[in-house]
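Supplementary Text 2. Reproducibility record for the structural model of the 308-residue chain.

All settings were left at their defaults, and a single model was retained for analysis rather than an ensemble. We include the record here because the model underlies the residue-level annotations in Supplementary Table 4.
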Amino acid sequence: MKLPLTGIVPPMITPLNGRDQLDITGLEKLIEHILAGGVNGLFILGTTGEGPSLSYRLRRELVERVCNQVNKRVPVLVGITDTAFVESVSLARHSAEVGASALVVAPPYYLPEAQPELQEYLDHLVAELPLPLFIYNMPALTKVHFELETVRRAMDEPRIIGLKDSSGDLNYFKAAADLIKQYRPDWPLLIGPEEKLFDALQLGGHGGVSGGANLFPKLYVKVCEAHRAGNLARAQELQKQIQRVSDSFYRIGKYSSSIIKGIKCALACQGICDDFMAEPFHRFRAEERNLVQARLKEITEELSKLNL
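Retained model, structure tokens:
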């Protein structure tokens, strides 16, 4: 895998059609749909992929099917975040065996750890892993930040190869970018919240792990390409369309799960895959689904005018 990994690495949703059953046809269609948009990698079993809600058996099946189908066309990054150290290592080894390129880990959730404990955890984990590792800052869900000093110390470990930041804190993001320039210029720095993709690129980020790229991968790719080419006006214009995707699909209902529900529902409306959700969540009901269909039609027509 060439570093730094730049551009768009979509956090792929996990197509399901039962409580412990992959929508295999939908998965195959979704992978080809995303790759056709020109993305630079694929991240599976992250937050958008409902990774922590899936059985270990299903996670392994997903990793194997994705790696087989992608067949090295782009790097496949596998989320191994877990409360059980040995399960993270076990999934990592399986991922290496079936052809994944790298691993991604957030701080173990449920019982918050202090930064010295988190650093020691990383030291122990990396020693057991067969693939390089990205660290994933997701404090809203894990309750623990990768504080900047912990990030800097992680840069001393050559097998840790980048940072995905989903904190939404651009001051933190800029400080991380400055550390990378000073200590590890080969490190990719990718932002999670797609609403801040353009801002992150301006601050020295290398790209985004953008949930909406499940739906409109080319849109997100073109933002990065325009920025890289110095066409900031074009990049900002396209960023407005990304904001529209967010406003249209992620805020239906009052629960945070509506982000994943919105993406899955829109994909189902596109005829790509089922929108079954892992327990304890459920797919949108008819009223919300009708709203998604109407908004999807509007956005698709608008993006078509922009040759997207």
